[in-house]
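STRUCTURE REQUEST FORM
Protein name: CRISPR system Cascade subunit CasC
Source organism: Saccharothrix saharensis
Requested output: structure tokens
Priority: standard
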Amino acid sequence: MILELHLLQSFPVSNLNRDDVGQPKTATFGGHTRARISSQSLKRAARLLFNYHGLDAGETGVRTKRLVDSTTELLVARGREEKESREIVMAALGHLGFGVDVNKGLTQYLLFVGRSSIEHLAEYCLANWDTLAKIEKKGTKAKPDKATSAEAKRILDGSRAVDVALFGRMIADNKDFNVDAASQVAHALSTHAVVNEFDFYTAVDDLKATEDSGADMIGTVDFNSACYYRYANVDLAQLAHNLGDDAELAARGVRAWLHAFVNAVPGGKQNSTAARTMPDTLLGVVRDTGAWNLANAFLKPVTDTDLMAASTERLAHHFTQLRTFYGSTGLHTVAGASVTGVLPHLPDEEIVTGIDEFTGRLLAAATA
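Status: completed
Returned output:
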């Protein structure tokens, strides 16, 4: 079963996800420049909300290079000396096949692991302390034998971490640790053409003498204002598989996913823009197989001055066109809502009037 989520969300002046020079990200789509929010940014914003929507901290993972620090802290709490513990942890990671920068104490790359991995790594260090202490080049990546590889898999297991199961894990030099993602997330694109703007700002020293004029700091901040189309889906069978076929955890996981993605807003420049809006148009679909990203509804940029109403009409019309042409076979549930307007083209029985009804219909169909 596939659960799809389509959202239209308008943001006022904002820079939610910036590029390497600080400008809001953009993409060319349909021959026009569009505002863009990367899928990575949206996934992180959603991940940070999972614990507010029914998942315990132990049921989510961490993406980190700092396993050395966290595991050392745990060993010190258990009575071990800090400097020696740190060396043992770096030796352990190297022995398990993961390189460590010994000067910084950081793993070679970000590892996406369940929170229990820190506890498991500490236990491994304690159980193999003397052997690990004899390793001369601590932190140097070794090629583990079969038994050590099995230990590494047990320690870094992510099968109880819902976000690892949803978004997957790829370790390029050790494919045995890879997890196929159950959720696909699109880059959000504006439904209309966009030109980035900039704000010239000045700042004044509060303690400066009143007779001194002029600014004490000047600069520019880039921004835009855009109505975005957001799309994501989750494959429930893949999610359950990634979670060891734990149906109860998978059901709570998809509920957290749905609520988190509706509420997820990237944190870029929020302190200076407060672009805390909510989706205005919501469309959810539960289907047997396949997936329909509806971005092509906006291949031709929306030019109407009522961006939300025009974008909503485009979205619903495109969905109806696809359903008419390709058929409704395999579509179990469709639920749509417009917070401030109307949602045309959908039959009345597919229109909902509140978030509880929206999520309830989708989750009931997806987990039936």
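Reviewer notes: The CA atoms of residues 203 and 217 lie 5 Å apart. The chain has two domains: 2-52+182-367, 63-160.
Form closed.
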